[in-house]
Amino acid sequence: MFDFDGTLPLMMIQFLLLVAVLNAVFFRPLTQAMDERDGFIRTNNTDARERLAKAKQLTLQYEQELAGTRKQSQQVIAEAQTVAQKIAQDQITEVRQQVQAEVMQAQAQLESEKQSAFGELQKQVDTLSRQILDKLLGATLAS
Amino acid sequence: MHHSSLLLDSQNWFNTLPLASLEVGQHLFWQIGGLKVHGQVLITSWVVIGLLVLVSVLATRNVERVPSGLQNLMEYALEFVRDLTKNQIGEKEYRPWVPFVGTLFLFIFISNWSGALFPWKLISLPEGELAAPTNDINTTVALALCTSLAYFYAGFRKKGLGYFRKYIEPTPVLLPIAILEDFTKPLSLSFRLFGNILADELVVAVLVLLVPLIVPLPVMLLGLFTSGIQALVFATLAGAYIHEALEGHGDEEEAH
Amino acid sequence: MDPLVAAASVLAAALGIGISTVGPALAQGNAAGKAVEGIARQPEAEGKIRGTLLLCLAFMESLTIYGLVIALVLLFANPFA
Questions:
Q1: Segments making up each domain of chain A, as ranges
Q2: Distance CA B83, CA B106 (A)
C-alpha cells in the first residue's frame, strides 16, 4: 500500500504541467473574459448613471428656465400694467387739466365779460346818473 | 513489501460469488527506464487530465460576453476556486495563486468523483484495477509535495532568505516544532486525502461484496459528498499554507 | 505470515480504528451541537455556519482516517509480516 516509486515524480511533473496548461487554456482566458465583462458592466453602469445625472440636471435646468420665464412674463405683465396705468393716469390728469383750463378760461371770460358788463353798466349808470342829475339839478342850476 | 488481496484471501467463500472482488495493493507495473511505475494510476490520471483540458479548451474556444453552456459551467468553477483562494490568501495577493489552488481543487475533485462515477470496472487490466488516481499514496504525496514546494516558493519570492526568520520568530525554542511542521503539513495533507478516498472505496466495495444491489447506494452518495469535501479541504489548506508563508509567523494561528 | 503477528495485527487494527473513532466522534458531536445552537440563535447565518461546519467536520474526520490508514497498513501492508 505504501509503495513509493516512479509514479510519485511522474505525477508531480504531470500535475505541474497540468497547472501550466490549465493556466493557459482555462484560467487566464476566462479570468480575462470575466474581468472584461466586469469592466463592461461597470462602464455601462457609470455611463447610465452619468446619463441619469445629466437628465436630472437638464430637468432642473428646464425647470429653472421655466420658472425664470414665468417670472419674466409676470414682470412683463406687471410692467405693462403699470405703464397702462400710468398712461391712463396721465391722460386722466391731462384731460382733467384741460378741463380745468377750459373751466378757468371760461371763468376768466365770464369774469372779463362780467367786468366789461359792469364797466359798461357803470358807464351807463354814470351817464344816467349824470342825466338824472342834470335833469334834477339843471333847473336848480339854471334857476 | 507484501501485497495481499483483501479478507481471508485464498480459502474465502466470497470468491465463489462472481459479483465483485476486492483488491488492495495490486498494481499494474510498468517499467520506465530504471523506475517502476503504477500503470493504472497513471492511466486514470491521464483520463482525468484529458477530461479537464478538453472541457477547458471547449469552454474557452470562443469566449462570449454572455456565457452559455460549457463556458457558463467553467466560469462557475472558476468563480468558486477564485472565491476559495481569495478567502484563504486575501484580496491583495490571491491572483497569481488561483491557477495552482484551482488546478489542485479541480484535479482532486474530478479524480475523486471519477473513481465513483466512471465505470472503470468495464476495462479489465492484466493486474490491478482502475480506480480514482487519488486512491494511490503516490498521487496524494505528489500533490502534497507540490503544495509544500508552492508555499516555500511563495515565501522565498516574497521575503527572500528572510523567510527563514519565521522559524525563530517568537522564540528560537520553537525551532524544532516549526521544522517539524513543514514535514507534518504534507504528511497530513496526503494521508487525509488518501485515507478518505481509499476508505470510501473500500467501504463501498465491502458493501457491494455483501449486498450487491441498492444498499450501497446511500454509502456511494456519502462517498461522493466526502470526496467533494476532501477536494475542498485540500485546496483550502493549500491556500492557508501559502497565505501563512506570505504573511509570516504572526497570524499563523488564524490560518489553521 | 506468522500466525501470532497476524493475530496481533488484526487485533491492533480493530482496536486502533475503534479507539481512533472516539475522540473525533466527541469532537464532531460537540461541533455539530454548537453549530445548531448558532443556527438557532441566528437563522440568517445558516449558510455560512453550514459551510464552516462541514469543513471542520472534514478535519476531525481526517483524524479517524489516520487511524483507519494505520489499520489498513496493519491488514494489507504489514511491515512485520
A1: 40-142
A2: 14
